[in-house]
């Protein structure tokens, strides 16, 4: 009696089966390539040995990284963006956290309306917000400048802080606070030693989000900045005559700093889960 082996599947069938098994990996790879091409371009051209224009590759150099302030006004604009970002983040995080606790923990008249109004700045186009704020400042005879940018950034950052912190508050287990109260902790001690540490990751995430939104905002800033130059505004103005390579250096550095923060956050989170 002779054994007959199963027929080999056709090449078309094997190819189809391979694609069905690896389609998600292929899609993920293409998505990551699409997302990171601008970052790779910015990083590569930060090493371009060029003069005023940085549109054509002229050769490799480390001079741009050794002297990131070599282009006129680039570091001044970055310093303005950092100062505005820090001030806006601090104010928006404090106010947004208090609003989030009020909405998330207390019932009061107009709570639903307040909850709805918080989302309006997020849903409104930036060009509308920027033009409205500029009209308001001019009607109040306030010249656009550094502090008008800070006020504008605090306004749109508060909504994101409230949404982020409120989601964290909603996920808290009320039994933890009840247990602290059962152990004779008063309301202030319960908030200080139980509630606030549990909400702190959400507050930190909201602060990072607010700083990121403030640092890279262009439309609202352009309406309300006057003669003050921020880093996005500097890049936009420089685009007409060629963005200097130092701007690529600073953009790449900001990306890697953000990447390090994310990695450190993930490592710390995993360490805490193991404890």
From TrEMBL:
<feature type="transmembrane region" description="Helical">
    <location>
        <begin position="249"/>
        <end position="268"/>
    </location>
</feature>
<protein>
    <submittedName>
        <fullName>Spermidine/putrescine transport system permease protein</fullName>
    </submittedName>
</protein>
<feature type="transmembrane region" description="Helical">
    <location>
        <begin position="190"/>
        <end position="215"/>
    </location>
</feature>
<keyword id="KW-0812">Transmembrane</keyword>
<comment type="similarity">
    <text>Belongs to the binding-protein-dependent transport system permease family. CysTW subfamily.</text>
</comment>
<keyword id="KW-0472">Membrane</keyword>
<dbReference type="GO" id="GO:0005886">
    <property type="term" value="C:plasma membrane"/>
</dbReference>
<feature type="transmembrane region" description="Helical">
    <location>
        <begin position="24"/>
        <end position="47"/>
    </location>
</feature>
<dbReference type="GO" id="GO:0055085">
    <property type="term" value="P:transmembrane transport"/>
</dbReference>
<dbReference type="Pfam" id="PF00528">
    <property type="entry name" value="BPD_transp_1"/>
</dbReference>
<feature type="transmembrane region" description="Helical">
    <location>
        <begin position="116"/>
        <end position="140"/>
    </location>
</feature>
<feature type="transmembrane region" description="Helical">
    <location>
        <begin position="146"/>
        <end position="169"/>
    </location>
</feature>
<keyword id="KW-0813">Transport</keyword>
<dbReference type="InterPro" id="IPR051789">
    <property type="entry name" value="Bact_Polyamine_Transport"/>
</dbReference>
<keyword id="KW-1003">Cell membrane</keyword>
<keyword id="KW-1133">Transmembrane helix</keyword>
<feature type="domain" description="ABC transmembrane type-1">
    <location>
        <begin position="78"/>
        <end position="268"/>
    </location>
</feature>
<feature type="transmembrane region" description="Helical">
    <location>
        <begin position="84"/>
        <end position="104"/>
    </location>
</feature>
<dbReference type="InterPro" id="IPR035906">
    <property type="entry name" value="MetI-like_sf"/>
</dbReference>
<dbReference type="InterPro" id="IPR000515">
    <property type="entry name" value="MetI-like"/>
</dbReference>
